[in-house]
Design goal:
By secondary structure, the chain is α+β, with helices and mostly antiparallel strands. Helices cover 26% and strands 33% of the residues. It contains two helices and six strands, in the order βαββαβββ. It has helices at residues 27-43, 73-94, and strands at 16-23, 50-58, 63-70, 103-106, 122-131, 135-144. A six-stranded antiparallel sheet has the order 4-1-3-2-6-5. The longest helix has 22 residues, at 73-94. It is globular, with a radius of gyration of 16 Å. The N and C termini lie close together (10 Å). Residues 132-149 have low confidence and may be disordered.
Length: 149
């Protein structure tokens, strides 16, 4: 399994970033799902519009966080309609009952300053939901960068 440096999380050509959480329930199920998904990525042809794909296991081990960067929402939707089911079907066979609360489409909101001397150990994702622009709620998720067993 390859570790990704956090600087690779900001792709300059990305027109959209997708964040998806999979709730697995246990560290064993998370690792099995992560391994199966990584195998699927390795076996599949990578679409030219997919700029980066990252997978994180939560610090508790009970969920996965996917972070992907695509050239555009439209390019992702074309791929998703044609290939998504094929990509996750093996995972669902090996690890049945994974809950997927949904996909969040986003754009980079703020820049990051990286410490060149130390590698970060935690990637924190903050999401904001707005109801007609009047109410906002914040949710913070922290996921470990280490996906090895």
């Amino acid at each position: 399994m390859t570790m990704t440096h956090f600087m690779d999380l900001v792709h300059p050509a990305a027109g959209t970033a997708l964040i998806s959480e999979w709730l697995t329930g246990t560290p064993e199920r998370s690792h099995a799902a992560a391994d199966a998904m990584i195998d699927q990525w390795a076996a599949a042809e990578t679409p030219s519009a997919l700029l980066a794909q990252h997978l994180f296991i939560s610090t508790a081990g009970t969920s996965l966080l996917f972070y992907a960067q695509w050239t555009s929402d439209e390019d992702h939707l074309v791929w998703a309609r044609a290939r998504r089911l094929e990509m996750v079907s093996r995972v669902d066979t090996l690890v049945p009952g994974i809950e997927r609360p949904g996909l969040n489409r986003t754009r980079l909101h703020r820049s990051m300053v990286h410490d060149a001397k130390r590698r970060p150990g935690v990637f924190a994702v903050t999401t904001m939901a707005a109801d007609d622009g009047r109410t906002r709620s914040w949710r913070r998720r922290a996921c470990s960068a280490n996906t090895s067993t």
